[in-house]
Amino acid sequence: MSLTISVIGTGYLGAVHAACMADLGHTVVGVDTDPAKVEALNNGTAPLFEPGLDELLAKVLQTGRLRFTTDFAAVADAQVHFVCVGTPQMVGENAADTTYVYAAIDALAPHVQDGALVVGKSTVPVGTAKKLLTKLTARVPAGVTPRLAWNPEFLREGFAIEDTVAPDRFVYGVHGDPDSDAARADVALLDQVYEAPLATGTPRLVMDYATAELVKVAANAFLATKISFINAMSEVCEAAGGDVVALAAAIGHDDRIGAKFLGAGVGFGGGCLPKDIRAFMARAGELGADQALTFLREVDQINLRRRARMVDLARAECGGTLIGKRVAVLGAAFKPNSDDVRDSPALDIAQAARAAGGRVTVHDPKAIPNAMRTRPDLDYADTVEEAVTDADVVLHLTEWAQYRALDPATLKTLVAQPTIIDGRNALDRDAWRAAGWTYRALGRPHA
Ligand code: UDX
């Protein structure tokens, strides 16, 4: 049965969620405080690059089931309200900034009707849902019974639509006893929202608020740990003359380990993993459980060390100094198929190479506008050819398919020194070497 839904916050999560919910047949109103974002979305333009999102927006806007507004009053008849606002890292601190979540509840509460369910999707420090329910209770109109569930989101950028409509699992955090009538009613309403994906057999797990909040950060902490584990092995491989790519493939054959997320390289970035592990440590500290998560500090350090190692390798390949050397950087986004540059290893390395005296030029197929906003002092090129012209060293930092398809022989004619450092272990090493390049990589022996 189709429902009337509101989605509060139309950033990455909210824009995708609103479009996907409308595509499932629900009537959706997306709310954001930014009028420019709302206008663009109403015209079918997403505030970010995500494969398929503009097309999906165009399709569902045409049905009339989706619209965006800055007016919270427009959500009044919604049966389900999804809170999808961001929880960025606080400036100068590890903790997450939950201001927007509380502000969303403040703005939403006066418009919540009796029977409506508020559903948190944002990634929050454990304990937030309980506090939000208290806030909601204090602010809903008289006669309205407040209902709040926690339904964390596990979407990956680049696969956001697929992950929203066909996730690995749904997690519902409910208030109090999951067998109570109130909790069962909340579960039933969420089941209506996700009726179509649930019908395909997607697991649905019901638990308390705290566990649901923790599932999200625990999953991200595990993923970050897996990447830092293989990057730690990469450091050891470099010291011992081993090959981390062969090592990862071999341990990945063990089903208990699994081959995914063992890609060694410059490490993880983006708007989730780095800030989520830091916020998780900060919250564990508040709870007196900081010892349980001290290993995440090491996970963070290993991750950041790979960025520094990349700059060291570039310096070594340039004869011991980057001063005055031309450094071509392929990639600015934190991962391919995204224009997101938040905590991007590529941009961090580009900036560090520049700080070390390099003349750095950055190319990326999609992320240059965002990169220019955050790192305006770097130089940018529209084409790979322009970026690598006269380069003393080329750094491959985001594994776009376009870079894997490059012809090393053609590029060799443009550079000053045919040296490439593959920070993602994603290029065809043999092809680059055969074309006369010095090919270096993290965690692999130097031929
Ligand atoms: C992540 C989680 O995967 C997702 O479930 C959660 O909802 C949000 O955070 P995302 O940040 O979109 O998603 O990207 P992801 O694909 O997880 O990659 C994160 C970072 O790890 C990227 O910088 C990527 O390049 C890096 N990575 C990934 C590696 O360095 N090696 C790998 O093997 C995999």
From TrEMBL:
<dbReference type="GO" id="GO:0006065">
    <property type="term" value="P:UDP-glucuronate biosynthetic process"/>
</dbReference>
<dbReference type="InterPro" id="IPR008927">
    <property type="entry name" value="6-PGluconate_DH-like_C_sf"/>
</dbReference>
<dbReference type="Pfam" id="PF03720">
    <property type="entry name" value="UDPG_MGDP_dh_C"/>
</dbReference>
<keyword id="KW-0520">NAD</keyword>
<dbReference type="InterPro" id="IPR017476">
    <property type="entry name" value="UDP-Glc/GDP-Man"/>
</dbReference>
<protein>
    <recommendedName>
        <fullName>UDP-glucose 6-dehydrogenase</fullName>
        <ecNumber>1.1.1.22</ecNumber>
    </recommendedName>
</protein>
<dbReference type="InterPro" id="IPR014027">
    <property type="entry name" value="UDP-Glc/GDP-Man_DH_C"/>
</dbReference>
<dbReference type="GO" id="GO:0051287">
    <property type="term" value="F:NAD binding"/>
</dbReference>
<dbReference type="InterPro" id="IPR036291">
    <property type="entry name" value="NAD(P)-bd_dom_sf"/>
</dbReference>
<dbReference type="InterPro" id="IPR028357">
    <property type="entry name" value="UDPglc_DH_bac"/>
</dbReference>
<feature type="binding site">
    <location>
        <position position="275"/>
    </location>
    <ligand>
        <name>NAD(+)</name>
    </ligand>
</feature>
<feature type="binding site">
    <location>
        <position position="335"/>
    </location>
    <ligand>
        <name>substrate</name>
    </ligand>
</feature>
<dbReference type="InterPro" id="IPR014026">
    <property type="entry name" value="UDP-Glc/GDP-Man_DH_dimer"/>
</dbReference>
<dbReference type="GO" id="GO:0000271">
    <property type="term" value="P:polysaccharide biosynthetic process"/>
</dbReference>
<feature type="binding site">
    <location>
        <position position="87"/>
    </location>
    <ligand>
        <name>NAD(+)</name>
    </ligand>
</feature>
<feature type="binding site">
    <location>
        <position position="269"/>
    </location>
    <ligand>
        <name>substrate</name>
    </ligand>
</feature>
<feature type="active site" description="Nucleophile">
    <location>
        <position position="272"/>
    </location>
</feature>
<comment type="function">
    <text>Catalyzes the conversion of UDP-glucose into UDP-glucuronate, one of the precursors of teichuronic acid.</text>
</comment>
<keyword id="KW-0560">Oxidoreductase</keyword>
<feature type="binding site">
    <location>
        <position position="342"/>
    </location>
    <ligand>
        <name>NAD(+)</name>
    </ligand>
</feature>
<feature type="binding site">
    <location>
        <position position="123"/>
    </location>
    <ligand>
        <name>NAD(+)</name>
    </ligand>
</feature>
<feature type="binding site">
    <location>
        <position position="157"/>
    </location>
    <ligand>
        <name>NAD(+)</name>
    </ligand>
</feature>
<comment type="similarity">
    <text>Belongs to the UDP-glucose/GDP-mannose dehydrogenase family.</text>
</comment>
<dbReference type="Pfam" id="PF03721">
    <property type="entry name" value="UDPG_MGDP_dh_N"/>
</dbReference>
<comment type="pathway">
    <text>Nucleotide-sugar biosynthesis; UDP-alpha-D-glucuronate biosynthesis; UDP-alpha-D-glucuronate from UDP-alpha-D-glucose: step 1/1.</text>
</comment>
<feature type="binding site">
    <location>
        <position position="37"/>
    </location>
    <ligand>
        <name>NAD(+)</name>
    </ligand>
</feature>
<feature type="domain" description="UDP-glucose/GDP-mannose dehydrogenase C-terminal">
    <location>
        <begin position="328"/>
        <end position="429"/>
    </location>
</feature>
<feature type="binding site">
    <location>
        <begin position="261"/>
        <end position="265"/>
    </location>
    <ligand>
        <name>substrate</name>
    </ligand>
</feature>
<dbReference type="Pfam" id="PF00984">
    <property type="entry name" value="UDPG_MGDP_dh"/>
</dbReference>
<feature type="binding site">
    <location>
        <begin position="154"/>
        <end position="157"/>
    </location>
    <ligand>
        <name>substrate</name>
    </ligand>
</feature>
<feature type="binding site">
    <location>
        <position position="216"/>
    </location>
    <ligand>
        <name>substrate</name>
    </ligand>
</feature>
<dbReference type="InterPro" id="IPR001732">
    <property type="entry name" value="UDP-Glc/GDP-Man_DH_N"/>
</dbReference>
<feature type="binding site">
    <location>
        <position position="32"/>
    </location>
    <ligand>
        <name>NAD(+)</name>
    </ligand>
</feature>
<dbReference type="InterPro" id="IPR036220">
    <property type="entry name" value="UDP-Glc/GDP-Man_DH_C_sf"/>
</dbReference>
<dbReference type="GO" id="GO:0003979">
    <property type="term" value="F:UDP-glucose 6-dehydrogenase activity"/>
</dbReference>
